[in-house]
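Notes to self, PadR family transcriptional regulator:
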Amino acid sequence: MDEPGDRIATNLRKGVLEFCVIALLARRDMYGLELANELTSRGLSASEGSLYPLLARMREAGAVETRWEHAEGARARRYYAVTAAGLEQLRVFAGVWNGISGQVDRLLEEESR
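result:
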């Protein structure tokens, strides 16, 4: 992607990353590196340096909760789980996203004619 395209993609990802994290956690609890890898594999790349502060803010806001799990012979991992408040945020986001993305799609289709 070119530089302007990269900038646009980065800004869009930043705006939706929180809701992508909630959507992933709605499927199953995950630890931080697992979340980062999943986001990266989907092209929604999130460096650990940006993901962990986001997760901390989400925890403070009540969208996620955490627990520590200790596996024998391995480091303890902090797992993140979505809360009822987080699921409600995701529901609201989905409605807004569907409305906005539909409008943007229509505008882009009109422009390409």
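- The chain has one domain: 3-111.
- The radius of gyration is 16 Å.
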